[in-house]
Amino acid sequence: MRNTRSTAPGAASPVRRRSRPRGALLSAVLLACAGLLAPAAAATPAAAAPGPVPDLVCRLDAEVDFSPPLGVLSRQAQVTGYIGYRDCRSPDGAAPELTDIVFHVLGTGRFGALPVPTFSVEGTGTGAWNTGEEGSLYFNGELKKGSPVPERTVTSGPLTGDGINGLQIPVPRFDKIDPNGVAGFDVVGQVCFWNGEKGRCTAY
User: pTM value?
Assistant: First the structure.
C-alpha cells in the first residue's frame, strides 16, 4: 500500500519555486550593461543649405569730394566724384561680360560730431559698363574704416535691383586751407552684387 502525505485541512499547499539557470541570468546582466555602456550612434549632421552666390565681385576704387569741406565749420556739403567697380568677375555666371564700370556721383555729404566724428554720404551715380550699357545706382551710408560700404542699389541697366555690399577702407583728404575740414575721401575695398538675399562679400 502506497504512503500518501496528507495535508491538514486549511493549510496552504507548498509552492515549488522554479530556479532560473545561473548562466542565463549572467548573460542577461551582461547584455544590459553592454547596452548602457555602448556609445549612442552619432547623429548624421544635416547638410547645410547652400548660401547665396553673388552676381559680381569687384574691386572698389572710389573718390568723393566735399564742397565746401566737411567739418565743425560746415556740417553739410555737396558730394561729387566717382565710384569705380573694376576687375569684376561673376561667381554665379549671371553676368560674366561685365568687368568694369565707373559711376559719376552727385549727392550730399554730412558731418556729425557726437559721440565721435562721422561722415556720411547719400546720392546717385550714373555710368557705363565695359559693354557700353548704361547703369545707375543709389548710395547712402557712412564712410568709416573697415565698415560695410554705404548701402547701394542698382537702379537701372544691367543687374537692376541688385543690392551691393562689401568692405571699404576710406582715407580722408584734409583741406589745405582749413586743416580741420575734410575735402574728401579716397576709398578702396571689395564689393559684391547680389540678386536677392545678400551673403558675406569677404567670402569671395
Answer: 0.73
